TrEMBL record:
Gene3D superfamilies xrefs: Aspartate Aminotransferase, domain 1, Type I PLP-dependent aspartate aminotransferase-like (Major domain)
Gene Ontology biological process terms from the UniProt entry: L-threonine catabolic process
Keywords noted in UniProt: Acyltransferase, Pyridoxal phosphate, Transferase
Cofactor(s) annotated in UniProt: pyridoxal 5'-phosphate
Upper taxonomic lineage: Eukaryota, Metazoa, Ecdysozoa, Nematoda, Chromadorea
Top-level taxon of origin: Eukaryota
Classification via NCBIfam families: 2am3keto_CoA (TIGR01822), PRK06939.1 (NF005394)
The protein's name in its UniProt record: Aminotransferase class I/classII domain-containing protein
Domain Aminotransferase class I/classII large: 2-300
Sequence similarity: Belongs to the class-II pyridoxal-phosphate-dependent aminotransferase family.
Species: Acrobeloides nanus
Length: 312
């Protein structure tokens, strides 16, 4: 429908790109991009901790595959050297990684891409709408003007919590995806009600930066107070994914259950979603939380933390 096209154009404008294509979910966008843009003569070089949907998407491509160690630029450069004989190399990274809330070293990745004539693909599901002063994502937070060739992201997280995904980038790439990307061709498009609400979200984001300001205030307050109380909070200090490290899997699940009794809904994550011995409670801070709500959550963490002897 017309509104689908309107949303695609709005997404492209938001990201400062030429065009965009909508999918039913970002899982589909990731499943549909690599097979179309690469052949057996190419190589895809991917961070080992990229999201499952990227891994599945890469499996569908006939390109040579190489994994580099998480955020390890030396290893990435090694893989770029090893694949010099390939026609085209694509570096694939999440902008922000979902379990730790850590951010890709994008400036350095881009300079490697320039040096080795590679293109960069970035998944911005955990950045779009809230990272950077106006929510444009990882590039904006790191002070990089739009540069990454292909961005995939979701409408189902910061942008309203409904569903939907997209690819945005050069016009020719988007046109090719429209002709060849299987999850786009062989699946329903987004329901019009979701397209309508997503258009509204972008309109709000593009006219008002108070969301990102509130979020930053809330994130800093939560992280600072939790660290002061003696908890170990992982990830980038500016990111609203705040993983509270507890290490032990049973403890993480018990802690989350006790938090729920206090009226706080947080999720415990343990192996195999995160490495063994790295169990944590992942707290997600929102722009719409009030300071009172954040303090209630911090106080519940302190009470249960003392009960379970995580802090003194
Ligand atoms: C990094 C990343 N990419 C892709 C997806 C898939 O997004 P969607 O829920 O829109 O399919 C997720 C969702 O968890 C994600 O975290």
């Amino acid at each position: 429908m017309d509104i689908h096209r309107q949303l695609e154009k709005t997404i492209a404008k938001f990201h400062g790109r030429e065009d965009a294509i909508l999918y039913a979910a970002c899982f589909d966008a990731n499943a549909g991009v690599f097979e179309v843009l690469t052949t057996k003569d190419d190589a895809i070089i991917s961070d080992e901790l990229n999201h499952a949907s990227i891994i599945d998407g890469i499996r569908l491509s006939k390109a040579r595959r190489a994994l580099y160690k998480h955020l390890d630029l030396g290893d990435l450069e090694g893989k770029l050297k090893e694949t010099q004989d390939c026609r085209r190399r694509m570096i694939v990274t999440d902008g922000v990684f979902s379990m730790d809330g850590d951010v890709a070293p994008l400036k350095e990745i881009i300079s490697l891409a320039d040096r080795y004539n590679a293109i960069v693909f970035m998944d911005e599901c955990h950045s779009t709408g809230f990272l950077g002063a106006t929510g444009r994502g990882t590039e904006e937070m790191l002070g990089i003007s739009p540069r990454v060739e292909i961005i995939n992201s979701t409408l189902g997280k910061a942008l309203g919590g409904a569903m939907g995904g997209y690819t945005t980038g050069p016009r020719e790439v988007i046109e090719l995806l429209r002709q060849r990307s299987r999850p786009y061709l062989f699946s329903n498009s987004l329901a019009p009600s979701i397209v309508g609400s997503s258009l509204k979200v972008f309109e709000m984001l593009m006219s008002d930066s108070s969301f990102t300001k509130n979020l930053q205030k809330n994130v800093s307050h939560f992280r600072n107070e939790m660290i002061k109380a003696g908890f170990k909070v992982l990830g980038n200090p500016k990111h609203p994914i705040c993983p509270v490290l507890l290490e032990d899997a049973k403890l993480a699940s018990q802690f989350a259950d006790e938090m729920l009794k206090e009226g706080i809904y947080v999720i415990g994550f343990s192996y195999p979603v995160v490495p063994k011995g790295k169990a944590r409670i992942r707290v997600q801070i929102s722009a719409s939380h009030s300071l009172d709500q954040i303090n209630t959550c911090i106080n519940a963490f302190k009470t249960i933390g003392r009960q379970l002897r995580v802090i003194n």
